[in-house]
Write a structure and sequence with these properties.
alpha+beta, 36% strand
């Protein structure tokens, strides 16, 4: 029987379809398994997904596991090809690290990969034996918080430690940050590398410090950071596999519940909750008498414990109308010192007096809430009297308010820096005499030109004053000289000799030079240096400050400060190196 062309084509097409169908059925099988079952609570395990074909790694969507209630960790993907007796076998494999935060049965749903579904799987999670778990765990995370009862926007220190057993061959890893909805969380400093002995086993410990500042009141849970990484398995890496010599691991620490109390109803002023708040000032030059027009630099240092640096308010002085102020941009930073978070804001302003006399500058205050005593307190800089005397160089430093001008027939010129004088104020004034030289048209034109030039100068100077912080030429010159002095290098022998000679001013200058070279954050005053050093040196610097600036005499011994400086300097030079393995935040 002879077949027609149509029949031959139909049978050929059917044969091809059957072959394709059999190949697809043979290469689209997906299997799912776990490396152990049951598993212990807070212990990571590996979910393995295997497809017997070469597939794109993106063919598997991790979001399919989001409804399981398990923590999803690191994922590794590999592909493998084998040729046996002329037969080609291809495999694509996904390894997903999972972790359970509570006991019970967890269902791995049917997973979809390229229109093919796997069979569902159930994993049992049981309580761990505390003693056995301590000995068997090779990687785990612990969290510790200073206190759990807080006030709104009160900052608390959270310490996270990653423990690695000696048998762990860490290849790489990352530690995520803790999370708390509506809170401000910040890492302080670099990771520290240390060791601890637990149940006779010396663990390597990587420590990270955070500050947590809740922004709303209520009861909340701080979710622990999670570690995801790869450790060496000791097995030989296959040329067909991307992860044959390593194993993905995940570890999560304990979550922490906190209670946040709202602002007390009786509190008044900007909200600033803290364990301790200190407000200090420093004058340059430090004296009680100044010349008129002389630029004076006044620096406020606001220091607070367990407060976010952004919460510290700006501090400005209160002055009579005869003073002009030129504030500089404030600087703030925070450090972890003596198991507490120390934040400070340094505000600097230039002051220029425009009148002679004795003036009392009002007190400067900052309201704050004492979280220890649970009541409102006030940090205060007391009122200060200063005397302004005439300038030794009256021509160069006389303020513009004292300039005198002849009376014009037109309306008087009213301006804070350019005021027409009254002829009665000066009995020797002859400008009203019609025969004097001021009545000539040429002189009138000169005066008008002078007035217009002065007005133009005032407008330009006022605009430029906004862009430069309002500083006049004298203030800029004073700042320039101050910066030039700061650029000089620190000399340890000079500091030692100054301490031996009890030269307080030279000791102060050398300490500021040392602080500039020693610390990354700017240190403009001795008060700003105090929270950066140990207790012994803090006390000596405070005594030095008191001996210079306190109204009451205070004893100070330079040799004691030198001994405290040597102790701090030697201990800081022997600090353990912060070089760490490739651990990314």
């Amino acid at each position: 029987m002879q077949l027609t062309r149509t029949q031959i084509f139909t049978r050929f097409s059917a044969t091809i379809l059957l072959l394709i169908s059999s190949v697809v059925q043979a290469t689209t099988e997906v299997k799912v398994s776990v490396d152990r079952n049951p598993v212990m609570i807070n212990e990571s395990f590996v979910l393995e997904i295997v497809a017997n074909d070469s597939l794109d790694p993106s063919a598997f969507d991790l979001s399919q596991l989001s409804q399981t209630g398990l923590v999803i960790g690191r994922t590794a993907t590999s592909s493998q090809t084998k040729i046996i007796n002329g037969n080609i076998a291809k495999t694509t494999r996904w390894n997903v690290v999972l972790l359970a935060r509570k006991t019970g049965s967890f269902k791995i749903p049917s997973l979809r990969i390229d229109s093919i579904y796997s069979k569902p799987l159930t994993v049992s999670v049981v309580e761990s034996n505390t003693g056995a778990a301590s000995n068997s765990k090779t990687i785990f995370v612990k969290n510790n918080i200073e206190q759990t009862n807080l006030y709104l926007q009160q900052t608390v220190k959270l310490v996270t430690k990653l423990y690695l057993a000696p048998s762990v061959d860490l290849q790489n890893g990352s530690l995520s940050d803790p999370t708390l909805e509506g809170a401000y969380i910040k890492q302080h400093g670099k990771d520290k590398d240390a060791s601890e002995i637990i149940m006779g086993v010396r663990y390597r410990v990587i420590e990270r410090i955070y500050s947590v500042t809740p922004q709303s009141s209520g009861t909340f849970t701080i979710t622990s950071p999670a570690f995801n990484g790869e450790i060496g398995t000791g097995q030989r890496r296959s040329s067909f596999s991307n992860f044959g010599g390593t194993k993905p691991v995940t570890s999560v620490g304990n979550d922490i519940k906190i209670k946040v109390t709202s602002i007390p109803e009786k509190y008044s002023g900007p909200w600033l909750p803290s364990d301790l708040v200190m407000l200090n000032e420093e004058w340059q030059p430090e004296q009680d008498t100044y010349e008129i027009g002389e630029p004076i630099t006044r620096t406020f240092t606001l220091l607070a414990l367990n407060v976010n640096e952004e919460q510290l308010p700006e501090v400005v002085g209160n002055y009579p109308d005869s003073f002009k102020t030129y504030p500089d941009q404030s600087e703030s930073h925070s450090e972890v010192r003596s198991n507490a978070i120390v934040s400070q804001r340094v505000s600097t302003e230039a002051i220029v007096a425009t009148k002679v006399g004795t003036f009392e500058l009002p007190a400067v205050t900052v309201n704050w809430f004492n979280t220890k005593t649970k009541r409102q307190d006030v940090a205060t800089i007391p009122a200060k009297k200063i005397t302004i005397v005439p300038s030794s160089n009256s021509q160069s430093s006389a303020p513009m308010t004292n300039l005198q001008m002849p009376i014009l027939e037109s309306s008087s010129l009213n301006d804070q820096n350019c005021v027409a004088s009254n002829s009665q104020d000066d009995p020797n004034d002859t400008t009203q005499d019609g025969n004097n030289s001021y009545s000539s048209p040429l002189m009138w034109a000169g005066w008008i030109l002078w007035i217009l030039t002065s007005l133009a100068w005032f407008i330009v100077n006022k605009r430029s004053g906004k862009s430069t912080g309002g500083m006049n030429k004298q203030t800029k010159l004073n700042t320039k000289l101050h910066k030039s002095n700061e650029q000089s290098t620190f000399n340890k022998s000079v500091l030692k000799q100054a301490c031996i000679n009890n030269d307080a001013h030279l000791v102060r200058d050398e300490l500021l030079k040392w602080a500039k070279a020693e610390f990354t954050q700017p240190v403009l005053t001795l008060t700003a240096l105090i929270p950066l050093v140990n207790l012994e040196l803090q006390q000596q610097i405070s005594l030095l400050n008191s001996s210079q600036y306190s109204q009451q005499s205070a004893s100070w011994a330079g040799k004691e400060l030198w001994n405290a400086f040597k102790l701090f300097h030697s201990s800081s030079n022997t600090t353990t190196s912060n070089d760490l393995p490739p651990l990314n935040g």
